[in-house]
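Hi D.,

Good news: the full-assembly prediction came through. Inputs first.
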Amino acid sequence: MNFSFSEDQILLRNSVRAALDEQCKPAHVRAMMEDDRSGYSESLWGEMAKLGWLGLPFAEEQGGAGLGLVELALVLEEMGRAAYPGPYFASVVLAGLGLQAGGSAAQKERWLPAIASGQARGTAALLEDSLDWDPASTTATATRTGAGWSISGLKRFVPWAHVADVALVPARAPEGVSLFLVDPRAAGVTVTPMVGIDLANRWSELRLDGAAGELMGPAGGAGPVLEGLLRRAAVGASAEMLGAARRCLDMSVGYAKVREQFGQLIGSFQAIRHRCAEMLLEVEKAHAAVYYAAWALSAGAEDAAMAASVCKSFVSEAARQVCGDAIQVHGGIGFTWEYDLHLYFKRAKALEPLYGDAAYHRELLVRGQAA
Amino acid sequence: MDLNYTVEDVAFRKQVRTWLEQNMPRQIRNLEERKAWHRKLYEAGYLGMGWPREYGGQGARPMEQAIVADEMARAGAPAPTNGLGVGIVGPTIVVHGTDAQKRRYLRKILTAEEMWCQLYSEPNAGSDLAALRTVAEDKGDHFQVTGQKIWTSGGALADWGLLLARTDTAVAKHKGISCFLINMRQPGVDVRPLKQITGSSEFCEVFMTSARVEKEDQIGRLGEGWGIAQTTLGYERGGRALARITSYAGQYNQLMNAARRLKRNGRPILDDAVTRQKLGRIWADLEVERYGALRVLTMLERGEHPGAGGSLTKLSYSEFEKRFMEMAEEILGPYGQLTDGVPPEFRLEVDTAVGDHGTWAYAFLWSRAGTIYAGSSEIQKNVIGERILGLPKESRADRVGGTR
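Then the structure:
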């Protein structure tokens, strides 16, 4: 039993933090928020490829580092802490882990080294207009054509689809729900921006109208791959929320040590100090939930599915609480656009409903027990 | 990071489980039987395990202690007795006591031949423990103690008490406190049970009137009592970290069963979305408590002391217990309030904090204690704010000057 990071893991975290502190300062995040083209920095992307982050969880023969979800969560936590603007999660977690779990040897060979090297970006279109995360709810359709498949349907909240070279798209074939690889730039695909409050985290609507799809895995057999991917995405998003929450806590504590009212530092008031203590407790619990789940999924532990749902349900609400409390501790300045707090507050909020919100995962927990 | 138990720990757990199956009493009817069970645990090496070997312990690892407690919780084993003696007084004597004190007291704590209580809180010194007014006056060959203590757990059974008393009123309040061992069986010590909201009396009030403390029963130097008390509060070694979770998990399963039987609008409440959300939330909270316990045990196994981090742990589990019991009451409705006449299917099958067979009503009421005793949640948040987050202390009227 060892619930602590190895030296290598600590080194990884420190190097990710140092790189992002240097290259993903709030000013960079703001510049990307206002960027009217891609919304992310190609040079930072290239840097991330060089540092090995883009292939972190892929096998070495696919240009990856062969690391596990704990390491991936460490990177994602730092990205949340920096409110990193870019398609890292979409490419590495959604497309990368999805391909890794369900792709054929040829599909992996085609995409994983390209993602790892930074040449290609991917995403996954897991949500339709009903917002139901259950893969069985998929209504997009797939029909056989001479050469392959033709996909039609409406997908929403697809992260970074506007810069993606490939998207994993669930659609209903005659055999049942199946996964397809779709080129978002191909004919029959319309990509329309959906602008949320987190401008550093871009979403699109994907309208598929007879778009060409390449089947990934067996027709009708997407269920297990999608469920596994959803769990990994839920834990990955939790790691990002954890990072955002920790940043909000750090900023609040820092502010409480310098801001004076009534002739005293506000951190000396129990109303503030107790709130900060509660925030720390939530952050520490979220840390335990994220890394337990990341380990459990990596190790194939018996309780891995449960741990993922515990993690997402807990961290969604903990991050909401901590980031919200941070605005309250700051008072008026925390409500200004100029102050950086809202970058992290919005990152946590953006991820809160994704990959199953707290209520969705609580229901999964009880369903597993009541059966 | 590897959250599997080691082969050794799995084997040890199996050994404890087997021993409990063969030795656990079906029922404990009185204190003598509880002491007998306590001695049996001690002789098997399962009690005071973390104490150094030279004083009768096993020098066991924190994980081994946690596993024993966890297996006892799993089996529904009766609690041993003399918990404050084994958990707090003994370790205090080990660290701060003289050789003579160690020889005189330690073994009898482990065997429960001598029962102990802790004489800290006073009517006007609760969260502000350093404001205590009980006085120990130096009479040359002994100390004479006068004052009142309250919230003395196990006071009615205790042969001895670990006492904090003021020996110097001229200095700042934290600096005038000393630590003693006091014989509870003497005319100057009057112990009265304190009836709590549970209707029971696990706590006492203790009135000391010119009570005698021998010179050789002073712990540490005069004026060092506050520092000693601070370290004793830190002796929580994670021993019950897993057991606590296992007990709740057992109770959670009982609630699931109750939710299958109870109905709302003609359907089992287990099919009701609101109930399921409540259950799912508390289960997630419980699992997160378990992960936290594994983190604490990892630290302890590496020989690191959690320090002020112990405040996070205590704040977390005591507040969790309140939420858990409130949810249990919501599931059970008025069944949850029964202290007598509980139908068998809604009975709580656990030992309560004091070892009596529990009811949900008792456990619910008892859950209000955890966020008050051993440093209230508010005190824990002060500690977390000041010592972990480094936030400024509040300006306080009592930081300077004497207590007179």
